[in-house]
Design brief:
It is a single chain. The chain has about 350 residues and is mainly beta. It has 2 domains: about 130 residues, Peptidase M64, N-terminal domain (Immunoglobulin-like, Sandwich); about 140 residues, Collagenase (Catalytic Domain), CATH 3.40.390. The strands form 4 sheets. A 6-stranded mixed beta sheet has the order 12-14-13-15-17-16, with helices on both faces. The longest helix has 15 residues.
Length: about 350
Protein backbone atom coordinates (compact mmCIF):
# COMPACT_ATOMS: atom_id res chain seq x y z
CA UNK A 1 0.00 0.00 0.00
CA UNK A 2 1.75 3.16 -1.21
CA UNK A 3 1.65 6.60 0.33
CA UNK A 4 -0.81 7.70 -2.33
CA UNK A 5 -3.14 4.83 -1.45
CA UNK A 6 -3.19 5.98 2.15
CA UNK A 7 -3.45 9.71 1.54
CA UNK A 8 -7.20 9.21 0.96
CA UNK A 9 -7.94 10.59 4.42
CA UNK A 10 -7.30 14.06 3.04
CA UNK A 11 -10.66 14.09 1.31
CA UNK A 12 -12.95 16.71 2.79
CA UNK A 13 -14.96 19.71 1.81
CA UNK A 14 -13.36 23.15 1.63
CA UNK A 15 -13.80 26.72 0.59
CA UNK A 16 -10.21 27.14 -0.45
CA UNK A 17 -10.49 30.72 -1.64
CA UNK A 18 -12.88 33.68 -1.49
CA UNK A 19 -14.03 33.01 -5.06
CA UNK A 20 -15.95 29.94 -3.93
CA UNK A 21 -13.56 27.45 -5.48
CA UNK A 22 -14.67 24.30 -3.74
CA UNK A 23 -12.68 21.11 -3.36
CA UNK A 24 -14.66 17.90 -3.37
CA UNK A 25 -13.36 14.40 -3.11
CA UNK A 26 -14.72 11.08 -4.24
CA UNK A 27 -13.35 7.73 -3.18
CA UNK A 28 -13.95 4.19 -4.31
CA UNK A 29 -13.39 1.34 -1.90
CA UNK A 30 -12.66 -2.25 -2.79
CA UNK A 31 -14.30 -4.26 -0.01
CA UNK A 32 -11.77 -7.08 -0.27
CA UNK A 33 -8.58 -5.05 -0.20
CA UNK A 34 -9.81 -1.99 1.69
CA UNK A 35 -7.80 -0.05 -0.84
CA UNK A 36 -9.14 3.43 -1.44
CA UNK A 37 -8.61 5.61 -4.44
CA UNK A 38 -9.74 9.17 -4.65
CA UNK A 39 -10.24 11.72 -7.36
CA UNK A 40 -10.45 15.41 -6.65
CA UNK A 41 -12.89 17.40 -8.70
CA UNK A 42 -12.57 21.17 -8.66
CA UNK A 43 -15.48 23.30 -9.71
CA UNK A 44 -16.50 26.91 -9.29
CA UNK A 45 -19.81 27.55 -7.59
CA UNK A 46 -21.51 30.75 -8.62
CA UNK A 47 -24.48 30.89 -6.29
CA UNK A 48 -24.25 28.79 -3.16
CA UNK A 49 -25.58 30.98 -0.40
CA UNK A 50 -28.12 28.43 0.84
CA UNK A 51 -27.61 27.57 4.53
CA UNK A 52 -24.39 29.58 4.72
CA UNK A 53 -23.54 30.87 8.18
CA UNK A 54 -21.36 33.70 9.35
CA UNK A 55 -18.63 31.88 11.26
CA UNK A 56 -17.93 34.79 13.59
CA UNK A 57 -21.58 35.04 14.56
CA UNK A 58 -21.67 31.57 16.08
CA UNK A 59 -18.09 30.52 16.81
CA UNK A 60 -14.87 31.53 18.50
CA UNK A 61 -11.61 31.10 16.61
CA UNK A 62 -10.95 27.97 18.67
CA UNK A 63 -11.49 24.23 18.36
CA UNK A 64 -13.82 22.06 20.41
CA UNK A 65 -12.38 18.55 20.47
CA UNK A 66 -15.10 16.04 21.24
CA UNK A 67 -13.97 12.58 22.37
CA UNK A 68 -16.47 9.73 22.21
CA UNK A 69 -16.51 6.00 22.85
CA UNK A 70 -18.31 3.94 20.22
CA UNK A 71 -19.23 0.62 21.76
CA UNK A 72 -21.30 -2.48 21.12
CA UNK A 73 -21.32 -5.51 18.87
CA UNK A 74 -22.75 -6.65 15.55
CA UNK A 75 -26.35 -6.28 16.67
CA UNK A 76 -26.31 -3.18 18.86
CA UNK A 77 -24.12 -0.08 18.95
CA UNK A 78 -24.03 2.86 21.35
CA UNK A 79 -22.26 6.23 21.59
CA UNK A 80 -20.92 7.71 24.83
CA UNK A 81 -19.36 11.10 25.48
CA UNK A 82 -15.88 10.77 26.95
CA UNK A 83 -14.45 14.29 27.20
CA UNK A 84 -14.56 17.79 25.71
CA UNK A 85 -11.40 19.80 25.16
CA UNK A 86 -10.59 23.30 23.95
CA UNK A 87 -7.74 23.96 21.51
CA UNK A 88 -6.35 27.45 20.80
CA UNK A 89 -7.15 27.81 17.07
CA UNK A 90 -9.70 26.59 14.52
CA UNK A 91 -8.12 25.15 11.37
CA UNK A 92 -11.28 23.90 9.67
CA UNK A 93 -13.62 25.40 7.14
CA UNK A 94 -15.40 28.68 7.85
CA UNK A 95 -17.88 28.53 4.99
CA UNK A 96 -20.74 26.18 4.09
CA UNK A 97 -20.84 25.24 7.74
CA UNK A 98 -24.27 23.60 7.73
CA UNK A 99 -23.65 21.55 4.59
CA UNK A 100 -22.59 17.94 4.91
CA UNK A 101 -19.12 17.58 3.37
CA UNK A 102 -19.31 13.94 2.25
CA UNK A 103 -21.46 10.96 3.15
CA UNK A 104 -19.42 8.85 5.56
CA UNK A 105 -20.95 6.22 7.83
CA UNK A 106 -21.51 8.75 10.57
CA UNK A 107 -22.18 12.44 11.02
CA UNK A 108 -22.13 15.18 13.61
CA UNK A 109 -24.61 18.04 13.74
CA UNK A 110 -24.28 21.09 15.97
CA UNK A 111 -27.29 23.32 16.61
CA UNK A 112 -27.62 26.61 18.39
CA UNK A 113 -29.53 25.78 21.58
CA UNK A 114 -31.54 29.01 21.65
CA UNK A 115 -32.79 28.94 18.07
CA UNK A 116 -32.46 25.30 17.03
CA UNK A 117 -30.63 26.39 13.89
CA UNK A 118 -28.05 24.01 12.47
CA UNK A 119 -24.73 25.83 12.64
CA UNK A 120 -22.26 23.07 11.73
CA UNK A 121 -22.24 19.61 10.18
CA UNK A 122 -19.51 17.14 9.37
CA UNK A 123 -19.22 13.47 8.48
CA UNK A 124 -16.82 10.66 9.30
CA UNK A 125 -16.10 6.96 9.21
CA UNK A 126 -14.69 4.90 12.06
CA UNK A 127 -12.70 1.78 12.75
CA UNK A 128 -15.50 0.68 15.10
CA UNK A 129 -18.06 0.65 12.31
CA UNK A 130 -15.74 -1.46 10.21
CA UNK A 131 -15.20 -3.82 13.13
CA UNK A 132 -18.94 -4.47 13.64
CA UNK A 133 -18.98 -6.26 10.29
CA UNK A 134 -16.20 -8.61 11.43
CA UNK A 135 -16.94 -12.10 12.77
CA UNK A 136 -15.51 -11.14 16.16
CA UNK A 137 -18.31 -8.60 16.64
CA UNK A 138 -20.87 -11.43 16.62
CA UNK A 139 -19.49 -12.83 19.87
CA UNK A 140 -17.98 -9.96 21.88
CA UNK A 141 -18.61 -6.31 22.75
CA UNK A 142 -15.87 -3.73 22.32
CA UNK A 143 -15.35 0.01 22.67
CA UNK A 144 -13.34 2.26 20.35
CA UNK A 145 -12.02 5.78 20.90
CA UNK A 146 -13.05 8.50 18.45
CA UNK A 147 -12.15 12.18 18.46
CA UNK A 148 -13.61 14.93 16.28
CA UNK A 149 -12.72 18.58 15.77
CA UNK A 150 -15.58 21.07 15.82
CA UNK A 151 -15.63 24.87 15.82
CA UNK A 152 -15.96 26.24 19.37
CA UNK A 153 -19.46 27.71 19.89
CA UNK A 154 -19.91 31.14 21.44
CA UNK A 155 -23.21 30.12 23.02
CA UNK A 156 -24.75 26.91 24.33
CA UNK A 157 -25.11 24.33 21.60
CA UNK A 158 -26.65 20.90 21.03
CA UNK A 159 -24.46 18.26 19.40
CA UNK A 160 -25.79 15.03 17.88
CA UNK A 161 -23.48 12.19 16.83
CA UNK A 162 -25.05 9.53 14.60
CA UNK A 163 -23.72 6.19 13.38
CA UNK A 164 -25.17 4.66 10.23
CA UNK A 165 -25.33 1.18 8.79
CA UNK A 166 -24.46 0.22 5.22
CA UNK A 167 -27.91 1.35 4.11
CA UNK A 168 -27.36 4.79 5.69
CA UNK A 169 -29.93 4.13 8.39
CA UNK A 170 -29.07 5.54 11.81
CA UNK A 171 -28.38 2.66 14.20
CA UNK A 172 -26.93 4.60 17.14
CA UNK A 173 -26.86 8.22 18.22
CA UNK A 174 -26.10 10.50 21.12
CA UNK A 175 -27.31 14.06 21.71
CA UNK A 176 -25.65 16.23 24.34
CA UNK A 177 -25.29 19.88 25.27
CA UNK A 178 -22.14 21.97 25.07
CA UNK A 179 -21.78 24.90 27.43
CA UNK A 180 -18.77 26.87 26.17
CA UNK A 181 -18.21 28.27 29.68
CA UNK A 182 -18.05 24.84 31.33
CA UNK A 183 -14.95 24.85 33.56
CA UNK A 184 -14.48 21.11 32.96
CA UNK A 185 -13.79 21.53 29.26
CA UNK A 186 -10.14 20.53 29.21
CA UNK A 187 -7.83 23.35 28.08
CA UNK A 188 -5.23 21.76 25.82
CA UNK A 189 -2.51 23.05 23.54
CA UNK A 190 -1.39 26.01 25.63
CA UNK A 191 1.82 24.44 26.90
CA UNK A 192 3.97 21.30 26.47
CA UNK A 193 3.55 21.51 22.69
CA UNK A 194 5.09 18.59 20.81
CA UNK A 195 8.23 19.66 18.88
CA UNK A 196 7.39 20.27 15.24
CA UNK A 197 8.77 21.69 12.02
CA UNK A 198 6.91 23.21 9.08
CA UNK A 199 7.78 21.57 5.78
CA UNK A 200 5.46 23.87 3.85
CA UNK A 201 3.84 27.05 5.15
CA UNK A 202 1.80 29.22 2.84
CA UNK A 203 -0.40 31.19 5.19
CA UNK A 204 -2.68 31.03 8.19
CA UNK A 205 -5.18 28.30 8.96
CA UNK A 206 -8.06 30.34 7.54
CA UNK A 207 -6.55 30.42 4.06
CA UNK A 208 -4.86 27.02 3.87
CA UNK A 209 -5.51 23.32 4.43
CA UNK A 210 -3.45 22.25 7.43
CA UNK A 211 -2.03 18.73 7.33
CA UNK A 212 -0.03 17.24 10.20
CA UNK A 213 2.46 14.43 9.53
CA UNK A 214 3.12 12.55 12.78
CA UNK A 215 5.98 10.31 13.86
CA UNK A 216 5.11 6.77 14.96
CA UNK A 217 7.79 4.33 16.08
CA UNK A 218 10.60 6.88 15.93
CA UNK A 219 12.67 7.33 19.09
CA UNK A 220 14.06 10.68 20.18
CA UNK A 221 17.36 9.79 18.50
CA UNK A 222 15.57 9.01 15.22
CA UNK A 223 13.77 12.32 14.76
CA UNK A 224 16.05 13.60 12.02
CA UNK A 225 15.18 10.42 10.12
CA UNK A 226 11.51 11.18 10.71
CA UNK A 227 11.85 14.72 9.37
CA UNK A 228 13.59 13.31 6.29
CA UNK A 229 10.79 10.77 5.79
CA UNK A 230 8.13 13.44 6.32
CA UNK A 231 9.77 15.65 3.68
CA UNK A 232 9.78 12.72 1.26
CA UNK A 233 6.07 12.21 1.88
CA UNK A 234 5.39 15.92 1.41
CA UNK A 235 7.36 16.02 -1.85
CA UNK A 236 5.54 12.93 -3.16
CA UNK A 237 2.15 14.43 -2.41
CA UNK A 238 2.83 17.61 -4.33
CA UNK A 239 4.29 15.82 -7.32
CA UNK A 240 0.73 14.86 -8.29
CA UNK A 241 -2.22 16.88 -9.51
CA UNK A 242 -4.33 18.47 -8.23
CA UNK A 243 -2.04 18.88 -5.21
CA UNK A 244 0.77 20.22 -7.39
CA UNK A 245 -1.43 22.98 -8.73
CA UNK A 246 -2.82 23.78 -5.27
CA UNK A 247 0.45 23.56 -3.36
CA UNK A 248 0.16 27.17 -2.22
CA UNK A 249 -3.12 26.30 -0.46
CA UNK A 250 -1.50 23.86 1.98
CA UNK A 251 0.44 24.00 5.22
CA UNK A 252 2.32 20.80 6.08
CA UNK A 253 3.76 20.37 9.57
CA UNK A 254 5.92 17.45 10.74
CA UNK A 255 5.21 16.59 14.39
CA UNK A 256 7.97 14.77 16.26
CA UNK A 257 5.91 12.57 18.58
CA UNK A 258 8.54 10.32 20.22
CA UNK A 259 8.26 6.59 20.90
CA UNK A 260 10.03 4.56 23.56
CA UNK A 261 10.75 1.82 21.02
CA UNK A 262 11.84 1.97 17.40
CA UNK A 263 9.44 0.40 14.91
CA UNK A 264 5.81 -0.64 15.30
CA UNK A 265 4.02 -3.69 16.66
CA UNK A 266 3.53 -6.77 14.47
CA UNK A 267 1.38 -9.14 16.58
CA UNK A 268 1.50 -11.84 13.91
CA UNK A 269 5.24 -12.12 14.51
CA UNK A 270 4.96 -11.76 18.28
CA UNK A 271 6.51 -8.28 18.17
CA UNK A 272 5.05 -5.64 20.46
CA UNK A 273 6.46 -2.11 20.75
CA UNK A 274 5.82 0.89 22.98
CA UNK A 275 5.08 3.67 20.50
CA UNK A 276 3.55 7.13 20.40
CA UNK A 277 0.07 6.07 19.23
CA UNK A 278 0.24 2.29 19.83
CA UNK A 279 -0.26 1.32 16.19
CA UNK A 280 -0.02 -2.29 15.08
CA UNK A 281 -0.37 -4.55 12.06
CA UNK A 282 -2.86 -7.45 11.99
CA UNK A 283 -5.88 -5.23 12.61
CA UNK A 284 -8.92 -7.51 12.43
CA UNK A 285 -6.38 -10.33 11.88
CA UNK A 286 -5.43 -8.92 8.48
CA UNK A 287 -1.64 -9.10 8.12
CA UNK A 288 -1.08 -5.77 6.34
CA UNK A 289 -3.79 -3.71 8.01
CA UNK A 290 -1.90 -1.15 10.11
CA UNK A 291 -4.10 1.02 12.36
CA UNK A 292 -4.40 2.36 15.88
CA UNK A 293 -7.42 2.45 18.17
CA UNK A 294 -5.73 5.00 20.47
CA UNK A 295 -7.20 8.01 18.73
CA UNK A 296 -7.05 10.31 21.76
CA UNK A 297 -3.29 9.90 21.95
CA UNK A 298 -3.02 11.10 18.34
CA UNK A 299 -4.86 14.30 19.14
CA UNK A 300 -3.05 14.81 22.44
CA UNK A 301 0.29 14.86 20.59
CA UNK A 302 -1.10 17.41 18.13
CA UNK A 303 -2.71 19.74 20.68
CA UNK A 304 -1.59 23.33 20.17
CA UNK A 305 -0.58 22.81 16.51
CA UNK A 306 -3.14 23.87 13.86
CA UNK A 307 -4.26 20.77 11.96
CA UNK A 308 -7.21 19.51 10.02
CA UNK A 309 -5.97 16.23 8.56
CA UNK A 310 -3.53 13.68 9.92
CA UNK A 311 -0.94 11.47 8.25
CA UNK A 312 0.97 9.09 10.55
CA UNK A 313 4.33 7.78 9.31
CA UNK A 314 5.27 4.42 10.79
CA UNK A 315 8.97 3.68 11.13
CA UNK A 316 8.94 0.25 9.53
CA UNK A 317 9.76 -1.42 6.23
CA UNK A 318 6.87 -3.87 6.55
CA UNK A 319 4.31 -3.42 3.80
CA UNK A 320 0.92 -2.12 4.92
CA UNK A 321 -1.17 0.77 6.16
CA UNK A 322 -4.71 2.02 6.65
CA UNK A 323 -6.89 5.08 6.19
CA UNK A 324 -10.12 6.16 7.88
CA UNK A 325 -12.12 9.06 6.47
CA UNK A 326 -11.92 12.19 8.62
CA UNK A 327 -9.74 10.40 11.18
CA UNK A 328 -6.22 9.55 10.02
CA UNK A 329 -4.04 7.93 7.39
CA UNK A 330 -1.32 5.55 8.63
CA UNK A 331 1.41 4.45 6.24
CA UNK A 332 4.76 2.70 6.45
CA UNK A 333 7.74 4.93 5.71
CA UNK A 334 10.47 2.50 4.68
CA UNK A 335 8.90 -0.06 2.41
CA UNK A 336 10.33 0.22 -1.15
CA UNK A 337 6.94 1.29 -2.55
CA UNK A 338 6.67 4.26 -0.16
CA UNK A 339 6.12 7.44 -2.23
CA UNK A 340 6.40 5.59 -5.54
CA UNK A 341 4.27 6.98 -8.32
Amino acid sequence: MTFLDNICAIHNFYCINPNNLIEYSIFVENEKTMKKTFIFILCSLFSVAVNAQNFNEYFEDKTLRADYIFTGNATKQEVYLDELSSLPKWAGRKHHLAELPLAGNGEITMKDKATGETIYRTSFSSLFQEWVSEEEASRVKKGFENSFLLPYPKKEAIVTVSLKDVYHNVNASLTHEVNPDDILIHQRGTNHITPHRYLLQNGNAEDCIDVAIMAEGYTEKEMELFYKDAQAACDALFSHEPFKKLKNKFNIVAVASPSADSGVSIPGEGKWKSTAVSSHFNTFYSDRYLTTSRVKSIHNWLAGIPYEHIIILANTDTYGGGGIYNSYTLTTAHHPTFVLL
